[in-house]
Design brief:
The structure holds 2 protein chains of 2 kinds.
Chain A: E1 9-12, E2 18-23, H1 28-32, E3 35-40, E4 47-50, E5 64-69, E6 72-77, E7 86-95, E8 98-101, E9 105-109
Parallel strand pairs in A: 1-9
Antiparallel strand pairs in A: 2-6, 3-4, 3-7, 5-6, 7-8, 7-9
Chain B: E1 3-7, E2 11-12, E3 18-25, E4 34-39, E5 45-51, E6 58-60, E7 68-73, E8 78-83, E9 92-98, E10 109-110, E11 114-118
The chains are: A mainly beta, B mainly beta.
Chain lengths: ~110, ~120
């Protein structure tokens, strides 16, 4: 199972919105719509911010939202804040023998 | 509060073996699937292995299949990863992660990781 494709980096100014895409190579994203997204600050463990494509765990800001179109899932962060600067990873579940992360996207808040 | 604390990471020679442990607390351990995920410092995340709530189902990434064995002891709220025939490319920070109830589709809690160095 190949890694999901994400842009290596994105950048924007505070207050702006960004969208990070996550594209599957096969049936993973399309078939199951079970993409989750993780935020990782330097030296810290990843943190779940979106699960099952569009759902936010309790305590995660509503500035984070998820969506899907075809075989591409997307994470949108609105009203960018300095603390959003981090690495973001998508993850897709196709079946228990095929669990794959994206390569990660570095978000820079200018 | 969910807590996952990994241990066991050390420097080991290629071909060697190592057993990682993860102590869980703050939730009903035997209700949830558990995973190991690794990360080479400065690189991305790689899913390694998962075990179902009762240990009846186990799955592995192709890169570790046949060399690593995942297990759990629900009486001690502990998760393990036995790593044999270690290679330099296994060098990484190994995270223990908890799945949601009845799903393998995400990781809702993570430990801080334990560093394995194969050299």
């Amino acid at each position: 199972q190949s890694a999901l494709t994400q842009p290596a980096s994105v950048s924007a100014s505070p207050g702006q919105s960004i969208t990070i895409s996550c594209t599957g190579s096969g049936s993973d994203v399309w078939t199951y719509n079970l993409v989750s997204w993780y935020q990782q600050h330097p030296g810290k463990a990843p943190k779940l911010i979106i699960y099952e494509g569009t759902k936010r765990p309790s305590g995660v800001s509503n500035r984070f939202s998820g969506s899907k179109s075809g075989n591409t899932a997307s994470l949108t962060i609105s009203g960018l804040q300095a603390e959003d600067e981090a690495d973001y990873y998508c993850y897709s579940y196709a079946d228990p023998s095929s669990l794959v992360f994206g390569r990660g996207t570095k978000l820079t808040v200018l | 509060e969910v807590q996952l604390v990994e241990s066991g990471g050390i420097v080991v020679q290629p071909g060697g073996s190592l057993r990682l442990s993860c102590a869980a607390s703050g939730f009903t351990f035997d209700d949830y699937a558990m995973h190991w995920v690794r990360q080479v410092p400065g690189r991305g995340l790689e899913w390694v292995s998962l075990i179902s709530w009762n240990g009846g189902a186990k799955f592995y990434a192709e890169s570790v299949k046949g060399r690593f064995t995942i297990s759990r002891d629900n009486t001690k709220n502990s998760l393990f990863l036995q790593m044999n025939s270690l290679r330099t490319e296994d060098t990484a920070l190994y995270y223990c992660a908890k799945g949601p109830r009845n799903s393998y589709a995400s990781f809702d809690s993570w430990g801080q990781g334990t560093l394995v160095s194969v050299s």
